[in-house]
Design a protein that fits this description.
single chain, 3 helices, elongated
Length: 83
Amino acid sequence: MFLSLPTDVFQSRAVGTVSGMAGTGAGLGTMISTYLIGRVADVTSFAPVIVAAALIPCAATVVFVSLVRPSKRPDPRGLLLNF
């Protein structure tokens, strides 16, 4: 779902930048989460990992929906599209 959202939200000249930043964030998040999952599973069990895996996408959706809204004032550079 989040891979196609930049094309719906941003102008075509900004989609490449937003997609690149999302890919970089996904790569870094994967490296960090792989390390943290090993540490948590060694200390406790996989139960906290499963709970976190269920809650993180929900939290990301709430953050995205709350941050990407049509603004009350027009975007001077014209990068965001209004829904």
